Each structure stands twice: as C-alpha cells, then as structure tokens.
C-alpha cells in the first residue's frame, strides 16, 4: 500500500483483455478501495506470441490510466522503455511531494 503507481498486467492474447483489467479493478476495490485513487499503468503482456504487425493495444484512454504499454518477458520487448517511463513518473511524483512538503513547512 506504499506504492506510488499501480501496474496492472493483462495477457494480450486473452479473448477479453479489458475484461481482465476490469476484474482486477473490482478485486482491488473489494480489498482496498483507496488504492484505486493511485495512478495506473495498464500493461499488456506476451507481445511475443503475436506477430508484430498484429499487435494493437486494445485501448487508448481509460479513467485513472496514465500509460498503456505492452511487453514481452521472453524477448524483452518494451521492458527497458517501461522501466524508464515508470522511473520518470515516480521521480516526478516524489519531486512534487517534496515541493508540497516544503511549501507546507514554510
């Protein structure tokens, strides 16, 4: 619960990947609804099982989702870019928190 960002991993080969995502959201809401206020990344996995010309991430804009990406654990495709983007986002959030704390402190 100390996490800054929630990353939801969804199998892109599933016949209903957005249904998987919604199921995860519902389970999280039942566990700790406050976590749903955190920024979210929707990460589609197993890109390696689809031909590159057939990979199309099935969403463009979802509430609370700041990034939609895809990776392949087998080939490593998309992983470095994902880690870099997430690290930049976390650093930005930390800097904003420090700035808010400094302003509040005087």
How would you describe this structure to a colleague?
The chain is α/β, with parallel strands linked by helices and 106 residues long. Helices cover 40% and strands 17% of the residues. The protein is built from two helices and three strands. The protein has helices at 17-31, 79-105; strands at residues 6-11, 40-45, 65-70. Strands 1-2-3 form a three-stranded parallel β-sheet, covered by helices on one side. Helix 1 (17-31) links the parallel strand 1 and strand 2. The longest helix has 27 residues, at 79-105. The mean pLDDT is 86.
Q: Could you write a compact summary of the structure shown?
A:
With 106 residues, this protein is of the alpha/beta class. It has helices at 17-31, 79-105; strands at 6-11, 40-45, 65-70.
Run of helices and strands: EHEEH
| End-to-end Cα distance | 29 Å
Any idea what the shape is? Answer: globular
β-strand percent reads 15-25%
| Stretches with pLDDT under 50, minimum 5 residues | none
What is the helix content? 25-40%
Q: What's the Cα radius of gyration?
A: 16 Å
Main sheet attributes: strand count, strand direction, barrel closure? 3 strands, parallel
- Strand numbers in spatial order across the main sheet: 1-2-3
How many H/I helices? 2
Structural class category: alpha/beta
Counted beta strands: 3
Determine the mean pLDDT: 86
Task: Give me some keywords for this one.
106 residues, alpha/beta, 3-stranded parallel beta sheet
Architecture blueprint of SSEs:
Layout: E1 6-11, H1 17-31, E2 40-45, E3 65-70, H2 79-105
Parallel strand pairs: 1-2, 2-3
């Amino acid at each position: 619960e100390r996490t800054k960002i929630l990353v939801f991993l969804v199998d892109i080969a599933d016949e209903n990947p957005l249904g998987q995502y919604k199921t995860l959201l519902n389970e999280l809401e039942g566990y700790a609804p406050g976590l749903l206020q955190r920024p979210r990344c929707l990460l589609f996995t197993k890109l390696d099982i689809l031909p590159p010309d057939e990979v199309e991430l099935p969403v463009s804009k979802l509430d609370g989702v700041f990034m939609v990406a895809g990776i392949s654990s087998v080939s490593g495709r998309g992983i470095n870019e994902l880690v870099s983007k997430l690290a930049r986002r976390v650093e930005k959030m930390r800097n904003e928190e420090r700035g808010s704390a400094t302003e509040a402190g005087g």
